[in-house]
Amino acid sequence: MELVAIKQVQEAINRLANQDVYVHLETTNGAYASHHNQDFFSAGAYIRNALVRYELGKITGIGPHRVGLKLNLGWIYAEGITHFEIDSENRLLLAGHDHNGKLAVALEISTTPFE
Amino acid sequence: MEKERHVLVVFPHPDDEAFGVSGTIATHVQNGTPVTYACLTLGEMGRNMGNPPFTNRENLPKIRKAELQEAARALGIQDLRMLGFRDKTIEFEDEEKLTNTITAIIEEVNPSLIITFYPGYSVHPDHDATGAAVVRAVEKMPVTARPTLHCVAFSNNCVDELGEADIVHNITPVAKIKLAAIQAHRSQTEQMFVDMEEKLKNQDPQMMVWVNNERFWTYKFA
């Protein structure tokens, strides 16, 4: 993955708009956060292969970035995005990594289901 | 360590076997005991991607699968099974399906000892759910036919509630093999391994105790 290049990411978001796409979205503190620090309130969410269609998508912020997708009936968004990759299957993979390289958030968009 | 007929190890993630029990596994292998390792997931939800990142969410499982196979080779595990469940979903799976999966393996390999996580005392929801599935599978067997069940526990309250571990294996003779297994899971362990190696070189007492002793609680069926 590379550091976010806004222009390239925005182009990929535009390319995937207005069609059925599969979305992977997750946020996580890791399963051990509350074990290592009992005062820490651990929370996260995960959805894999949600089939949606968005009419408008944007990447914003000066970094870490935010990405929002406007659906016909609702929204998807992620914040803390630092890296991107357009992989060999032309999928847009976005992720936010902390200073130790640990993934904290991921938002991925594909025209075919994720494995 | 007692000589076993067959050892079955059941954990949810590649690398679960490396830290707490790989010295025990290596010792059984050296004793000529067949070891089956059933690993439920490929650790798809691992968070270490590196800085700069060396992989992404979709490729990580491929890397971890190769690492798991390498760790199994390092330990001399002859029978590695990847069960195809997904990381962080074990507690949400159908319980009966999980139980039956474990039962089928038990019936096939007929282990005299099973090693898994202690349900309720193993921190990660996948650990607890995996241990619980093994307990259910063994509970269904007639009392006299049940293999021994050694559980790994490491929650903050485990000693308070379970007492001290009743089985402690000193694995110093195979420590090198254990370190090789830990190192095989490079994507997960590279950062900590540097620190570990340095401490071991300096014979740091805490690190020596941590690496060379593997603790188990024998599961007591109600």
Short structural summary:
The complex is a heterodimer of chains A (115) and B (222). Chain A has 115 residues and is mostly beta strands.
Q: Can you walk me through this structure?
A:
The complex is a heterodimer of chains A (115) and B (222). Chain A has one domain (2-31, 54-110): Protein Yojf, Chain: A, CATH 2.70.180.10. Chain A is globular and about 45 Å long. In chain A, strands 1-7-8-9-2-3 form a six-stranded antiparallel sheet, covered by helices on one side. Chain A has a three-stranded antiparallel sheet with strand order 4-5-6. Chain A is built from two helices and nine strands; from the N terminus they run βαβαβββββββ. Chain A is mainly β and 115 residues long. In chain A, a hairpin with a 3-residue loop joins β5 (65-71) and β6 (75-81). Chain B has 222 residues and is of the alpha/beta class. Chain B has one domain: 3-Layer(aba) Sandwich (Rossmann fold). Helices cover 45% and strands 15% of the residues of chain B. A seven-stranded mixed sheet of chain B has the order 3-2-1-4-5-7-6, with helices on both faces. In chain B, α1 crosses α6 and α3 crosses α4 (125-139). The two termini of chain B are 26 Å apart. The model of chain B has no long low-confidence stretch (mean pLDDT 96). Chains A and B meet through β8 and β9 of A and loops of B.
